[in-house]
Description:
Blueprint: E1 7-10, H1 14-25, E2 30-34, H2 38-48, E3 52-54, H3 57-61, E4 68-71, H4 78-87, E5 91-94, H5 102-114, E6 120-122, H6 130-140, E7 148-157, H7 177-191, E8 197-205, E9 225-232, E10 237-243, E11 249-257, E12 260-265, E13 268-273, E14 280-284, H8 300-319, E15 331-332, H9 333-352, E16 356-357, E17 359-360, E18 369-370
Parallel strand pairs: 1-2, 1-4, 2-3, 4-5, 5-6, 7-10
Antiparallel strand pairs: 6-15, 7-11, 8-9, 8-16, 9-10, 11-12, 12-13, 13-14, 17-18
Helix pairs in contact: 4-5, 5-9, 7-9
Amino acid sequence: MSNIPGVGVFGTSITAQWITKKLQEQGFKVEAVWSRIFADAEAVATSLKIPFYTTRVDDVLLRKDVGFILICTPPSLHSQIAVKALGIGKHVLCGVPGGLNQSECLRMVQAGQYYPSLMASLAYTLRFHPSITIMKEMISDGYVGENINLVDIRINCGSLLDTDYSWMCDSSMGGGVVSLLASHLLDLLTYFQLGRVARVHANLNTMTRTTDNIKGIRSITAEDYAIIQLYLSGGCCVTISINSVMSGFSQDIVVCGEAGYLAFSSDTLKGRKNGASKDQLIHLDSSQSDSELSNSGLPTVHSIGMVRMIKALRDGFQARAESRDVDSGAASFSDGLYVQAVMEALRRSSETRQWRKVEMYDEDGSGPIQI
């Protein structure tokens, strides 16, 4: 008998539908779908052959044939759905950044602690991109040396805003490049095991305040441009530049150490040891050209990671025996709490134009404590 649980999906966005299809392709049976709008839930259920649809959260969570909850909703709903799902014994995969603030994410962490055998993960998909996985292994093996002194990351992309006004226009509701893009990069630093962020400096700006459809009394507050400096506890300096007033999507990640550097751009991972005459091609990802990945509503680099993440989840469920433990290698809710702490420090820094220390709630609810 298969250990793969039935899935309940919260959300009907383009991305939610694409992920649902990928789950079905990997052997997951999607049993129910939820949306705030009944017509949307019905349309998606009909299109993807999902037997049950509803606008009531509990109608999905209490179904006996649903053991795995996928949350693809606005961040304001992440915490309440995840906490309730874990409380009644369901595995949870939640979209990023996992709530609106540390308080919401802390409740998610504590809910997961009551049921440690349940999967409680966040969809930080860069961890599963093949080039990123190779980068981590090479960093661990000392390719760039023991002392990593600089990480430089640059993203140029098109607008993240919906056509009409939505939560993505409001930074306090989880919109903006910090929550939607920088959060993935902050988690990547954890994945690379480079040390915790101790101090931050940020310049966050909203270049696009109105559009043809978003104007009048409604203004856009979500930042679309960010210049971020991070100082890690181990001494490494990190610079992140995000510009979402361009077009397309490009992401460059460079990790420099005393012995050389690694550079990931688009579908190519290269490296160079000190003293070498030219770069070494380490990995070329052919899946970058897969046309299906462009229909996800995600940047291709994240789509590739999501597909591999779903496969890891399937393998994790299939591998477990009597225990309910599922080890997929995904980011935990505790990882998400840390990312929230850094993002809050970034916003404080941008408001005050000063370097700020990262203050994080302890998982027992005490704090905040400085990292």
